Amino acid sequence: MLLQAGIDFVLINAAFWLAYIVRYELRFPITVAEANYVAYTEYIPISLLLSAGLLAIYRIEGIYNYVRGRSWLEEMYGLLTATFTGIVILVFVFFFFRPQFYSRLIYLYAGILIVLVLTISRVGLRLVLGRLRQRGIGVDRALIVGGGEIGRAIMRNVLAQPDLGYRIEGFVDDDPTKGAIGNFPLLGGTDQLRQLLRGRAVDEVIITLPWHAREKIVSIMQDAEAAGARVKIVPDLFQLSLSKIAVDAVGGIPLIGVKDSAISSGAFSLKRVMDVLLTLVLSLLMLIPLAIIALLIKLTSPGPVIFEQSRVGRGGKIFTAYKFRTMRVGADEEKAQLAHLNEATGPLFKIRNDPRMTRVGKWLRRTSLDELPQLLNVLHGDMSLVGPRPPLPNEVAQYEEWHKRRLDVAPGVTGLWQVSGRSELTFDEMVMLDLYYIENWSPWLDMWILLKTIPALFTARGAY
Asked: Whole-model pTM?
């Protein structure tokens, strides 16, 4: 906090100096008469006073309070309101005592530049911290108590947002039938928690047990605090889905209610409009590449250019998905013979060096260009540009109950799973990312995923 405040102090003064340059040296937007010219030395006390005042306002407004998961837009909004509050107070004070001496525009410029400079510095810091946390540096090691829906909700949020700064060591649960969820191992029952805390360096224990286990929750809290770990409790709110909880306040009294699903009927309509418009543009841009790929497939391998396969869409509806053919004809009939080579988890079937793949097919898989014909599925309405991976019917037949929630939306040509590692992810992790996407959908999330897909295609990370 002190370091951030010190950096802000320097940047606020630098921004004020830039405002002075713009107003008095560049003389934008109107010139300054020589009689009204003021040396910068006259503004130094004002700049220092403004800096001290803004730091105090930032402190009062909670700008320096660490809130895990706070977006940069929320932080920018806080900076904007706090900065212009300070500017307005300063302008009032100085123009009340010396109305003709100082330029009015310099304060407007200073406010804009201060917000801009401080926002850029925070975005840069977020990028640096995000990179470090993705490498496991500066993260809090957490252990989750409870592997139910709420526990999985925590896991998928951490998986989708590595910049939150958590590394989940695993979870404990008293249900003996539960196993590992993705790469999050089951470490034992709640009665083993005290022993686990002694043997592991855990910074935080996140309790996701239902309220009827009050006595157990109190006991776990005592064990965690005795081991020097922080304790966070996620209320189950009568087992309501976390995506449907809305929290409001009246006079400081929290009110908990139920909100509409993130992807409501209106949101579906907006998403559909975005899909059609963007798909039409992409189809026009990709006409020549599509023709070249089709020609390469035809010249290098006998058989059709397009591979048709039944997939499961929104609500369990079966549709025909189109892809460029990447394997030799009859590859599906050979699947049973290659079952022992399967490298994927859960109901998925993936082989890194699949012997059924054609030469062109290997390249298409690595770049995911084999999925371009699915733009037809998007126009038809069976798929979306962004969404969960379209599953096969035999995969859906093996789903656990919580996996089926990924069928609540149309499958996508790309998705959060693709920009987060594709085939390197376990099946459970893929589902958790899909559920995070469903619960947090917005047009901006779709655009962010589409933009992230471009470097993912070039690096071909986890694609095979």
From this structure: 0.67
Q: Are 438 and 408 in contact (CB under 8 A)?
A: yes
Terminal-residue alpha carbon distance, the chain: 45
How is residue 327 annotated by DSSP?
Answer: B
d(CA 111, CA 15): 8
Please give the backbone phi and psi of residue 168, each rounded to the nearest 5 degrees, phi first: -80, 120
Question: Which H or E element spans position 248?
Answer: strand 245-250
| Token pair recorded at residue 225 | 């605090």
pLDDT at 181: 85
CB distance 13 to 51 below 8 Å: yes
Beta 230-233 vs 412-414: how paired, if at all?
unpaired
- In this predicted model, what pLDDT tens digit does every residue of 2-44 receive, in sequence order? 888 889 999 999 999 998 888 777 776 666 555 456 788 888 8
Q: Whole-angstrom Cα distance, residue 23 to residue 21?
A: 6
What pLDDT, on a 0 to 100 scale, did the predictor assign at position 287? 92
| Pairwise CA distance, residues 347 & 404, whole Å | 13
Structure tokens at 261: 């699903």
- pLDDT, one tens digit per residue, over 242-297 is 555 555 555 555 555 555 555 667 778 889 999 999 999 999 999 999 999 999 99
What residue type is 260 in one-letter code?
D
Residue 40: both structure tokens together: 């910068």
- Tens of pLDDT, residues 43-96: 888 889 889 989 988 888 788 877 666 777 778 888 888 888 888 887 777 666
Q: Specify burial of residue 91 (Cβ count, 10 A radius: 0-12, 13-18, 19+).
A: middle
Our CA dihedral for 376, 380, 381, 386, rounded to 10 degrees, sits at 10
Distance CA 423, CA 433 (A): 13
Roughly what angle, to the nearest 10 degrees, separates helices 265-285 and 443-459? Answer: 40
Residue the block writes with tokens 């940047």: 11
- Helix, coil or strand: residue 70: coil
pLDDT in tens, 362-395: 888 888 889 999 999 999 999 999 999 999 999 9
d(C-alpha 409, C-alpha 8), whole Å: 44
Q: Give yes or no for a contact between 387 and 412, defined as CB atoms under 8 angstroms apart.
A: yes
| Residue 415, CA distances (Å) to 17, 437, 446 in order | 45, 8, 8
What is the C-alpha separation between 333 and 152, in angstroms, rounded?
Answer: 36
As to burial, measured by CB atoms within 10 angstroms (0-12 exposed, 13-18 middle, 19+ buried), residue 387 is buried
